[in-house]
Amino acid sequence: MFSLEQSIADWRKHMLAAGIKTPVPLDELENHLREEVQELVASGMEPQAALAASIKKIGLPSPLRAEFTKVDKESRLTEQYVIKVLVYTLWFCLVLPLYLYTFNKYDMNWVWRSAGIANVIFGTLAILYCEQINARFPVISNRLRRRTIGISAAIGGAAGMGIFMNFILPHFPLTMGQLVVAVLWGLTVMSIGGVTLAGLEEAAKRTSTTTE
C-alpha cells in the first residue's frame, strides 16, 4: 500500500545518498515537494502520481547537488570578501594610522619602536597573505574536534589578553606610546586564536568542495 510519508522519507534518503547533505537546502526541497504534492492532490490527482510528478518537476539529485554546491561556493566567496574588506579597513584605516600617530607624537627608545615596527610588518604580511596562510591549515574532518581546537585557541587568546591587560601590564610604568605598542601586540596575539578557528573551518569547507 502506498504511503506518502514513507515515500517522501525514501526520497530524502535518496537525496542524501546523492550528496545533498546540507540540512537547510534539503529541508527547503522537501517543503517545496510537499506543497507541490498537496496542490496536485487537491486538483484531483492520486497521491502516488502527484508525488512522482512533483519529484520530476523538482529535478534529479545530481543537477540539484551541482546547483547547491555552486550557490554555497558563491555564498562563501561573498562572505570571505566582506570579511576581507572589514579586516583591510580596520588595519589600514585604524591600526596603521594609530601607529603612525604614536611614532610621531611619543618618544620611545629603539626597543619599543622596533617592537611597533615589527607588529606593523607582521600584521600587514598576515593580512596580505591570509589566503596562503589558510591554505596551510590541516584538514580535520571531525567537526567536534575541529571546533574544540579552534574555540580553545580563541578562548586561550582572549584569556591571555585579559591576563596581560589586568595582571601584567599594570605592574609596568609604561608611557602612552609604549602602552599603544603593548596593547596592539596583545591584540595581535589574541587574534591568532580566531585565525586558527577560521583557518580550520575554511580547510574543512575547501576539502568538502573539492570532494564534491
Give an overview in words.
It contains eight helices and no strands. With 212 residues, the chain is an all-alpha fold. α7 (143-168) runs antiparallel to α8. The model has no long low-confidence stretch (mean pLDDT 80). It starts with a helix and ends with a helix. It folds into two domains: 4-59, no CATH class; 72-211, no CATH class.
Portion of residues in helices? over 70%
Broad shape: elongated
Number of strands: 0
Described by its quaternary structure, the protein is single chain
Beta fraction: under 5%
The sequence of SSEs as H and E is: HHHHHHHH
> How many separate helices?
8
Report how far the terminal alpha carbons are from each other: 37 Å
Query: Could you say which structural class the secondary elements and strand pairing correspond to?
Result: mainly alpha
Average pLDDT taken over every residue: 80
Profile the largest sheet. Answer: none
Compute the number of structural domains: 2
Low-confidence stretches: none
- Whole-number radius of gyration? 26 Å
Brief rundown of the structure:
The chain is mostly helical and 212 residues long. The protein has helices spanning 4-18, 23-42, 47-58, 61-105, 110-128, 130-134, 143-168, 176-211.
